[in-house]
Amino acid sequence: MRPDDWYLTEDVDDFLVRAGDFLRSRPGPHVMQLTWAERVRARGAEAFGTEAPVFGVLERADEVHATFYRLTPRGFGLSPLTPEQADSLAARLAALGHSVPSVSADHSTATAFAEAWQRHTGATPELRDTRRRLYRLGTLTPPEPLPAGRGRVLGEQDLEQVMFWCGEFAKAVGEDVSIDAGTWAGTRFADKRYTLWETPDGTPVSIAGMNPVIGGQIQVDIVYTPAHLRGRGYAGAVTAEVSRAALAAGARDVVLFADLSNPTSNALYQRLGYRTLTDWAVYDFSRAAPEAG
């Protein structure tokens, strides 16, 4: 496979015209491609830093075989690749002088690209994260019995509460992000719809969010219960509520990521009807690719 089989563009509309059908044909494995392309399309490239996003499509004989996106500083994401495809992409990017500080993809793809990038640039890969598993909903099975209370969808009038809960979630998972009225619109949290689970007296105890429908699919993201309130069924109740809402919104597929280091949440999602789709990995690189020429 030749490196020049990869078509690169900074135009997200061009990327989606070329690769949209391919991405939508397998929306689960392509969830991050679809999500970030839609965010760039909706918000504009300038919302994601001073360096223009780059999108890539592997085309042969007018057929799309793979894609990638690069958003600085958010990193580099890949659709599933064979080792040969990963090597051709690494060769193409290295020849053009592109930097790749990190890569995120399904585990086998991320590993194949990390090895190829090291061959072509000398950059040393360091496995940062193997804790995420991507699940897809089969048959939704809400918990029985539900904890006392109800789900409440949050609207624009609840922005302060949404920002507070998203900030608590970000701190809990170690996500380095500033969340306040000035930064909110530029965060990944801003385009979600959130549901709170409230006890009968109106006390909020757990939150779940979901992305818009993209490619016929909705990603459930985030799910968070404060540590002192866990073990009471609140996360299961609010996740079931949001999963039901996703189906009602017309999603053919509903997916979510779970932290494999938390066996409780993984068991919960499986009880609700979520089934393993793939495991995810993130590699960091010790240095950027050398300048072209």
Give a summary of the structure in a few sentences.
Helices cover 33% and strands 29% of the residues. It contains seven helices and twelve strands. The strands form two sheets. It has an eight-stranded mixed sheet with strand order 5-12-6-11-10-9-8-7, with helices on both faces. A four-stranded antiparallel sheet has the order 1-2-3-4, with helices on both faces.
For the largest beta-sheet, the strand count, sense and barrel status come to: 8 strands, mixed
Spatial shape? elongated
**What is the alpha-carbon Rg in Å?**
20 Å
Uncertain runs with pLDDT below 50, 5 residues or more? Answer: 288-293
Structural class: alpha+beta
The overall average pLDDT, rounded, is 93
Strand content: 25-35%
String of helices and strands: EHHEEEHEHEEHEEEHEHE
Number of helices: 7
* Strand runs, count: 12
Distance between the termini: 22 Å
Strand line-up of the largest beta sheet: 5-12-6-11-10-9-8-7
Percent helix range: 25-40%
Secondary structure topology:
Layout lengths: L5 E4 L2 H14 L5 H13 L10 E7 L2 E9 L3 E4 L4 H14 L5 E5 H15 L3 E13 L12 E4 L5 H15 L19 E6 L5 E7 L6 E8 L9 H15 L4 E7 L3 H10 L1 E12 L8
Parallel strand pairs: 10-11
Antiparallel strand pairs: 1-2, 2-3, 3-4, 5-12, 6-11, 6-12, 7-8, 8-9, 9-10
Helix pairs in contact: 1-2, 3-4
